[in-house]
Design brief:
290 residues, Complement Module, domain 1, Heat Shock Protein 90, 3-stranded antiparallel beta sheet, 7 helices, 10 strands
Length: 290
């Protein structure tokens, strides 16, 4: 019976559910103490209950967040190892061929050897870029800062950095962003966000004849709404839900699959949103709210 149980557990703590009058289930931490009489078999049991519902919920959320982060790290690690292997495989293959050809002294072998060396350099460079992007992706949260950043100045800097490719592809760029539009974000983050969109846009329009990029911004409910559009090939409907996933790429030979994942992470880091609308053979539009 209860008295016997108390005798066997004179000082005990346990958690248990308690239903309130309103029907709500709360988690209670019970602390029991038994007081025994020295001259009789009577005992007094004292039970103190502490409502720990919020604490248990916080612990549960912490476990969920921890598991989610672990899954993300595991996904990144698996993706990185796969991508770096793919990037370096041509290098190992070419080095093997070069080692076999070093004994050949024919003049026509020089051009072939130089081509193999170029393949090796490209493969190693891609692997280096992959590790740099993974490092950037993993440090986004710790690098978060708030500062006033001119949206127009950032976009002009990105256009200048990509000027040679823009001229090579004969792209018409339309920039409609007022000079007084400021974002409260870390400047390198905003640069990375829009530079990733620019690189993707240039890749998309390289495959079409009409090559246009349009960037505009307006104020919306105390925030900035930025539209980034291109006239490229568009995104297949079956890929729309995957483009922000880490390591998903429609350009497996040249893309890393991290550019848009980084862009989305940056937007979310500053409590913003990013949407995409795309039509095959018509182009793609990203709408960012920050």
């Amino acid at each position: 019976d209860f008295a016997e149980w108390v005798r066997q557990h004179p000082h005990d703590m346990y958690e248990g559910p308690l239903k309130t009058k309103s029907g709500q289930i709360r988690t209670i931490l019970w602390s029991n103490s038994a007081l025994f009489s020295s001259d009789s078999d009577e005992l007094t049991a004292i039970a103190i209950g502490q409502d720990i519902t919020e604490r248990k919920e916080a612990e549960r959320q912490l476990q969920v967040a921890s598991q989610k982060r672990y899954n993300q790290v595991k996904e990144i690690a698996g993706g990185v190892s796969h991508e770096i292997f793919n990037a370096l495989f041509p290098a190992t293959s070419c080095l093997s061929k070069l080692s076999q050809r070093l004994d050949l002294n024919q003049a026509d072998e020089i051009a072939r050897n130089r081509k193999l060396i170029q393949v090796v350099e490209n493969a190693v460079q891609r692997a280096v870029e992959m590790t740099e992007l993974v490092t950037e992706y993993s440090k986004l949260e710790s690098d978060r800062k708030i500062e006033d950043v001119s949206l127009q100045a950032i976009l002009q800097e990105i256009l200048l950095a990509n000027e040679s490719r823009i001229e090579e592809l004969k792209v018409k760029v339309k920039l409609e962003v007022p000079g007084d539009f400021l974002l409260k974000c870390h400047r390198p983050h905003i640069y990375s966000l829009f530079n990733n969109l620019m690189v993707n846009a240039l890749d998309a329009i390289a495959e079409v004849k009409q090559r246009n990029i349009s960037i505009s911004a307006c104020k919306k409910g105390g925030r900035l709404s930025i539209e980034f559009s291109d006239s490229g090939v568009g995104i297949p409907p079956e890929n729309i839900d995957k483009i922000f996933d880490a390591f998903f790429s429609t350009k497996p030979r040249t893309g890393t699959g991290l550019g848009l994942a980084i862009s989305k992470k940056i937007v979310e880091l500053y409590s913003g949103s990013i949407e995409v609308n795309s039509s095959l053979d018509k182009g793609t539009k990203f709408i960012i709210l920050l």
